[in-house]
């Protein structure tokens, strides 16, 4: 087990501890409020929040398409960043050729970025 | 610590006990720190508005957060009848778990790190991306108008600034040549003129330090970028339907993330546990004090900004992220890598 994966074992344990802690934080107060009698749900209390009157519209209504655009652009640029990381740590090893190749890739991506900008994908009025 | 327990329990069990203790030594003080930092935030904010802030519970009001916590703990957990019960309860669990989890790789001092993994920075990036899920699940599961809009806004905002944060990290990694956080700190030793520690003092990297500081505020939804809980339009944002400890978990998670971002600012650009100047007497102060001092400094800066700068509009926020920070950080990758090719690696 003295491999790379062994270094991640503490993180796995940490995940367990953190999950246990936060689950306890969510469930314990529910039990406590049952025990102390402060739990007293009724229909009006459990209604969804709307400034003082019954909600008149489905809450999962349409929303602006630009949020989708942001999500799509994010995928492109985040993937690009994922390409950049291994390149960044090994820049010394891959030399000028490696650097140039990435610069060409970045230039192409910048073209895409300029296109998205000109098309107005980044406009929020 | 492992060796100490291994003497009594054998190696595997000793390692296990030592690791669990290490985890609790991070997680419990972190929760304590979050409670105190909420108090500090309120105190700083009050002082800048010429108010007193919390001053009733305990000396100087120091126990205010604990009183709040106890009160919230004893409250009834309200699950709206139209909500998706399972997801509704899972959302705060995800938020808080993720906020704790990132601390597993943070080096508090030389060798003081729970999991010294080689791709520590990548791990933090991955974990902080997961934070979006807690928020968007909270908004969706609440099945209520304001949480839903807030969650969508929050997701788009976090995602936008993650892009520029990702590029800023590339410039740091280029210079340090490693993803290991301790390695990045060591790379900053005597970085400028042979005696100043910290990438931020490098004129080429200083703009990235500024971009990272502002992006980290946007990423954690701090004022002036707190559009996710703009009370004038969205009530309380994605937490609107939450009550009791589930509500508190969002708070704990949020402030945990703020502390994490302060720590990242300190680690990536300001030398982490190194003193600002590479001068022997300064090393007599343990590294952990320098590190905590820097975290507190950045937290103070964030509170300061919160108290002075008005909230952005959503279009301004998106413009800053996509049209200013993204092109700048993209260009800086070219600049930094080009400079390194010319000087360090020789074309």
From TrEMBL, chain A:
Presence of keyword Cytoplasm: no
Gene3D superfamilies: NADH:ubiquinone/plastoquinone oxidoreductase, chain 3
Keyword Signal: no
Segments crossing the lipid bilayer: 6-28, 67-88, 94-117
Pfam families in alphabetical order: Oxidored_q4
Membrane-related topology note: Multi-pass membrane protein
GO molecular function: NADH dehydrogenase (quinone) (non-electrogenic) activity; NADH dehydrogenase (ubiquinone) activity; quinone binding
InterPro entries from the UniProt entry: NAD(P)H_OxRDtase_bac/plastid, NADH_UbQ/plastoQ_OxRdtase_su3, NDAH_ubi_oxred_su3_sf
Main location: membrane
Enzyme Commission number(s): 7.1.1.-
Keywords: Cell membrane, Membrane, NAD, Oxidoreductase, Quinone, Translocase, Transmembrane, Transmembrane helix, Transport, Ubiquinone
Catalytic activity annotation: a quinone + NADH + 5 H(+)(in) = a quinol + NAD(+) + 4 H(+)(out)
Subcellular location: Cell membrane; Membrane
A GO cellular-component term linked to this record: plasma membrane
Name of the top EC class for this enzyme: translocase
General function of this protein: NDH-1 shuttles electrons from NADH, via FMN and iron-sulfur (Fe-S) centers, to quinones in the respiratory chain. The immediate electron acceptor for the enzyme in this species is believed to be ubiquinone. Couples the redox reaction to proton translocation (for every two electrons transferred, four hydrogen ions are translocated across the cytoplasmic membrane), and thus conserves the redox energy in a proton gradient.
Protein family membership: Belongs to the complex I subunit 3 family.
Subunit structure: NDH-1 is composed of 14 different subunits. Subunits NuoA, H, J, K, L, M, N constitute the membrane sector of the complex.
Name of the protein described by the UniProt record: NADH-quinone oxidoreductase subunit A
Source species: Alterirhizorhabdus solaris
TrEMBL record, chain B:
Transmembrane segments: 15-40, 87-109, 121-142, 163-185, 191-214, 248-270, 282-304, 324-342
Function: NDH-1 shuttles electrons from NADH, via FMN and iron-sulfur (Fe-S) centers, to quinones in the respiratory chain. The immediate electron acceptor for the enzyme in this species is believed to be ubiquinone. Couples the redox reaction to proton translocation (for every two electrons transferred, four hydrogen ions are translocated across the cytoplasmic membrane), and thus conserves the redox energy in a proton gradient. This subunit may bind ubiquinone.
Compartments, record wording: Cell membrane; Membrane
Similarity comment text for this entry: Belongs to the complex I subunit 1 family.
EC nos: 7.1.1.-
The protein's assembly and partners: NDH-1 is composed of 14 different subunits. Subunits NuoA, H, J, K, L, M, N constitute the membrane sector of the complex.
Molecular function GO terms recorded: NADH dehydrogenase activity; oxidoreductase activity, acting on NAD(P)H, quinone or similar compound as acceptor; quinone binding
Name of the protein in question: NADH-quinone oxidoreductase subunit H
Keywords in alphabetical order: Cell membrane, Membrane, NAD, Oxidoreductase, Quinone, Translocase, Transmembrane, Transmembrane helix, Ubiquinone
Pfam families assigned to the protein according to its UniProt record, in alphabetical order: NADHdh
Reaction catalysed by this enzyme: a quinone + NADH + 5 H(+)(in) = a quinol + NAD(+) + 4 H(+)(out)
A GO cellular component entry from the record: plasma membrane
Topological category with respect to the lipid bilayer: Multi-pass membrane protein
GO biological process terms, semicolon-separated: aerobic respiration
């Amino acid at each position: 087990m003295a491999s790379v994966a062994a270094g991640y074992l503490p993180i796995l344990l940490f995940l367990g501890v953190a999950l246990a802690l936060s689950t306890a934080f969510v469930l314990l107060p529910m039990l406590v409020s049952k025990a102390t009698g402060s739990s007293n749900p009724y229909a009006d209390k459990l209604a969804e929040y709307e400034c003082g009157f019954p909600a008149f519209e489905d809450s999962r209504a349409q929303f602006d398409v630009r949020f989708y655009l942001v999500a799509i652009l994010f995928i492109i640029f985040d993937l690009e960043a994922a390409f950049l990381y291994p390149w960044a740590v090994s820049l010394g090893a891959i030399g000028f050729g490696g650097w140039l190749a990435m610069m060409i890739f970045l230039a192409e991506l910048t073209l895409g970025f300029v296109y998205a900008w000109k098309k107005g994908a980044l406009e929020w009025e | 610590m492992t060796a100490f327990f291994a003497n009594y329990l054998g190696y595997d069990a000793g390692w296990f006990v030592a690791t669990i203790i290490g985890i609790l030594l991070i997680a419990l003080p972190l929760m304590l720190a979050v409670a105190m930092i909420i108090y500090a935030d309120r105190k700083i904010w009050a002082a800048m508005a010429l108010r007193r802030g919390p001053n009733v519970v305990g000396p100087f009001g120091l126990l205010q957060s604990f009183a709040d916590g106890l009160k919230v703990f004893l409250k009834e957990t309200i699950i709206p009848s139209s909500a998706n019960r399972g997801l509704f309860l899972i959302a705060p669990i995800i938020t808080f778990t993720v906020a704790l989890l990132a601390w597993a790789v943070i080096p508090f001092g030389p060798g003081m790190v729970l999991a010294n993994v080689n791709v520590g920075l990548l791990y933090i990036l991955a974990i902080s991306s997961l934070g979006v899920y807690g928020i968007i699940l909270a908004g969706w599961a609440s099945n209520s108008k304001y949480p839903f809009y807030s969650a969508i806004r929050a997701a788009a905002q976090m995602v936008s600034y993650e892009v520029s944060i990702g590029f800023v990290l590339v410039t740091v990694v280029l210079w340090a040549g490693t993803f290991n956080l301790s390695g990045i700190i060591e790379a900053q030793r005597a970085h400028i003129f042979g005696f100043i520690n910290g990438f931020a003092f490098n004129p080429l990297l200083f703009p990235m330090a500024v971009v990272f500081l502002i992006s980290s505020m946007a990423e954690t939804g701090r004022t002036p970028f707190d559009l996710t809980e703009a009370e004038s339009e969205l009530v309380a944002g994605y937490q609107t339907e939450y009550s009791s400890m589930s509500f508190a978990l969002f708070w704990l998670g949020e402030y945990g993330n703020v502390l994490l971002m302060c720590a990242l600012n300190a680690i990536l650009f300001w030398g982490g546990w190194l003193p600002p100047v590479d001068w022997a007497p300064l090393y007599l102060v343990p590294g952990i004090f320098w590190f905590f001092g820097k975290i507190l400094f950045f937290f103070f800066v964030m509170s300061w900004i919160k108290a002075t700068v008005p909230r952005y509009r959503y279009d301004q926020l998106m413009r800053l992220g996509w049209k200013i920070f993204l092109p700048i950080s993209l260009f800086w990758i070219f600049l930094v890598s080009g400079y390194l090719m010319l000087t360090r690696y020789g074309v």
